[in-house]
Specification:
Structural class: alpha+beta
Strand content: 15-25%
Number of helices: 19
Radius of gyration: 35 Å
Helix content: 25-40%
């Protein structure tokens, strides 16, 4: 439809320089793209359009397409401040806050009160906007006043529709002087001629310095276009919409289209600072940092965890108020608090097609939801389990998924309650692989929240395996393994994101981008572990969260093996990093592959027959006392520890992390300083404040944890209470 370079309607897969011959200033400051047309705004406030001209969206008074950018002559004399587009309509805001539009109007997206397409720009009016509403067609009073003012300046003009301009230019938009311009000219002329007249109420208030009796209109500061609807934001924070509302994207609480500009009723008490529009959904950002959405939700673009459309604006971030604390159950509150944007405030919002983007305050995190049709950084190499979760479920499968999800979340250490939930699970059986994937995902989510209940969750899966399968037991175990792989990959990705965020804070955008280019983008230096990256309390908290999740997942695997849900061969495959899975086959970075292999081998705690034989021989030699010294015993114990503890070897460096109780206590009081500055020598008694020494001693006695990223040192008890000493 025209790219502005050669005048030929070609498709270009790479960016190309756009140039054309013109006598106007062509330094562009803004652009907008519709479905098949492009709008450009120059530094001299001129608007250029190019592309498909069907339905008049180019604003040239016709439907001809343009292969090179052409200036929109109808807007000459107006200073255009910003431009926007819908699929087939164009929207423009002037410097004074007036809003104009042209193009398709089949659903009233131009807000003119009808469904007639506009080939030239027309103003979108509302009583709250600057300029007010247009007069009714039958009301000739404004026109009569304009003619009277003309006659007072120039004398009687021929005909009742006299014009200042020649007849040939009468139809040129915005050529006829406005009533305000004519009134100002009359006042100047009468003052020059010494004509005295009685001041009206408005002029009297103006001369006395009083406020204007008329209501001042709001300026339009932002506008966005969807497939067939328009979202408008004024300088006082009000949101107005018009157009198609088949999915409730106008936020009016119904699905009736609106042909006139209408305020969103549920947002009148909120002040918005930014709006965005997808194809069939709308996004609003308030001054408090809350994101409101409404409209279509077929692919989750509203971010509420469902696929149901919303007809009125709802807040994306869950807000727990005092009434919620009194009326909602603990489980419901936990679900709200588990939302990714709980407690997060946004500073920018964007929408594209069927996706929504929210930039968190500070600009360091971006939250996305909706369609992934064009990819996500981690979707370049998705796991097989993620693909199973994306498979569409029929209504029967959706009901089973919902019931079993609630069953897993209701599970508590009560024998009678457990048996009741098992009966409910059997009642809704049988379950195929698609439903099982959602059940296992819900189970893993609860394992991360309540690691002390791993035995209950494993017993539930065991009963499901024996009583409720529509597929084979082999297929069930395969889904469990794929779910564990997916969760492990997610943990590694979360670790990478946390470390990249810390690196970005330390280096700044310019140096960080340069390092990423030198490292080759996704791989290279970006593939780190927590070794050497824990420098303050915030990074230590990230490490602790990662460690606890690893411990929970490891404990769940061990219990699944005890209950024969997973066999030794399954654990062996997991320890090898699931070499035949889609994700493992798709890894192209050697460091990433090594990282995954090390992580899952430590997670599975699997040892080869040769390693087991060596350990048996070492224990036999130690028991017989044949030349095995204390140092040998220590080496044997360290060998067991290395194979039994979840850890990650640093790929580029292997610096120690704080694992002793004294260092744990130092971290609790370190603030932003590194733990090395607070690590005390063995012969120094800590005197850092009341209770510090007692706290350190208690932590040292109770230090029974397995670090997922470090090997236990001497003097620390492991999970079995064994004392490590020289």
């Amino acid at each position: 439809t025209g790219q502005g370079e050669t005048g030929e309607g070609k498709m270009h897969r790479l960016p190309r320089w756009m140039y054309w011959i013109t006598t106007d200033t062509t330094r562009m400051v803004a652009c907008a793209a519709g479905e098949s047309h492009t709008v450009l705004l120059s530094a001299s406030w001129h608007v250029f359009t190019v592309g498909d001209g069907t339905r008049g969206k180019l604003g040239h008074g016709n439907e001809r397409s343009q292969l090179t950018p052409r200036r929109m002559e109808a807007l000459m004399g107006l200073k255009i401040a910003s431009v926007a587009t819908g699929h087939n309509h164009t929207l423009l805001i002037t410097e004074t806050g007036l809003l104009y539009g042209c193009g398709a109007n089949s659903h009233g997206q131009l807000g003119m009160g009808d469904r007639v397409d506009r080939l030239s720009p027309v103003r979108l009016r509302h009583a709250d906007f600057v300029g007010g509403v247009a007069a009714a067609a039958a009301d000739h009073e404004p026109e009569r006043r304009t003619v009277d003012l003309q006659e007072r300046i120039l004398g009687p003009l021929p005909g009742i529709r006299g014009r200042f301009l020649p007849a040939a230019e009468e139809d040129r938009p915005f050529a006829q002087p406005t009533e305000q311009q004519l009134a100002a000219a009359v006042r100047v002329r009468e003052e020059v001629l010494g004509i005295r007249r009685t001041h009206n109420d408005d002029e009297f208030r103006l001369r006395m310095g009083l406020s204007d009796a008329k209501k001042r209109g709001s300026k339009v500061v932002q506008v966005c276009g969807g497939r067939a609807h328009t979202v408008i934001l004024t300088d006082v924070g009000r949101v107005y919409m018009c157009g198609h509302s088949n999915c409730g994207q106008l936020g009016q609480g119904h699905t009736r289209s609106l042909q006139a500009v209408t305020a969103v009723p549920t947002l009148v008490n909120l002040s918005c600072v930014q709006v965005a529009a997808g194809d069939d959904h709308s996004v609003m950002l308030t001054t408090l940092g809350h994101v409101y959405v409404c409209g279509a939700n077929a692919v989750g673009q509203l971010g509420d965890g469902t696929l149901e459309s919303c007809w009125a604006p709802m807040c994306v971030q869950p807000v727990v108020g005092r009434d919620d604390l009194l009326t909602k159950s603990k489980q419901q509150l936990e679900v709200l608090q588990a939302h990714p944007m709980f407690g997060v405030l946004a500073e920018q919002v964007f929408a594209a097609g069927a996706s929504t983007f929210a930039v968190a305050t500070g600009g360091e995190r971006v939250f996305v939801c909706g369609s992934g049709a064009y990819g996500h950084p981690y979707d370049r190499n998705p796991t097989t389990f993620a693909g199973i979760l994306r498979l569409k479920l029929d209504k029967r499968e959706q009901k089973k998924t919902m019931v079993m999800g609630s069953t897993v979340r209701m599970l508590r250490p009560d024998e009678q309650g457990f048996q009741d939930l098992v009966r409910q699970m059997v009642l809704y059986s049988l379950y195929n692989e698609k439903v099982l994937a959602h059940i296992i995902k819900a189970t893993l989510d609860e394992v991360m929240r309540h690691p002390g209940f791993v035995t209950l969750y494993a017993k539930l899966l065991e009963r499901c395996m024996h009583l409720c399968l529509e597929c084979t037991v082999f297929a069930f175990r395969r889904v469990v393994l794929l779910a564990v792989e997916d969760r492990g990959v997610t943990l590694l990705q979360a670790q990478d994101e946390a470390l990249r965020r810390r690196l970005l804070q330390r280096m700044g955008w310019a140096r960080y981008q340069q390092q990423q280019r030198e490292a080759g983008g996704v791989g290279g230096a970006g593939q780190m572990t927590y070794f050497g990256a824990v420098t303050d309390k915030e990074s230590y908290n990230d490490f602790v969260l990662f460690r606890e999740d690893c411990k929970s997942l490891q404990g769940f695997l061990r219990v699944l093996q005890v209950h024969d849900v997973l066999l030794e061969g399954d654990i062996r495959d997991l320890a090898a990093g699931m070499p035949g899975s889609q994700h493992s086959i798709g890894i192209v970075d050697s460091e990433q592959a090594q990282k995954k292999l090390t992580f899952f081998r430590s997670l599975a705690r699997w040892r080869s027959p040769g390693e087991c034989a060596a350990d048996e021989a070492m224990r036999a030699a130690t028991a017989a006392g044949r030349g095995v010294s204390g140092g040998g015993r220590k080496a044997a114990h360290n060998t067991n520890t290395k194979t039994a503890v979840v850890r990650q070897q640093g790929l580029t460096q292997d610096q120690p992390l704080p694992i002793r109780a004294s260092e744990e206590a130092a971290w609790e009081f370190s603030g932003t300083t590194g733990w090395e500055a607070y690590s005390l020598p063995e012969d120094v008694v800590p005197e850092e404040g009341p209770g510090w020494g007692a706290y350190m001693d208690r932590q040292q006695r109770e230090a029974a944890f397995r670090s997922p990223v470090a090997v236990l040192r001497d003097g620390v008890q492991d999970a079995h209470g064994t004392q490590h000493s020289g």
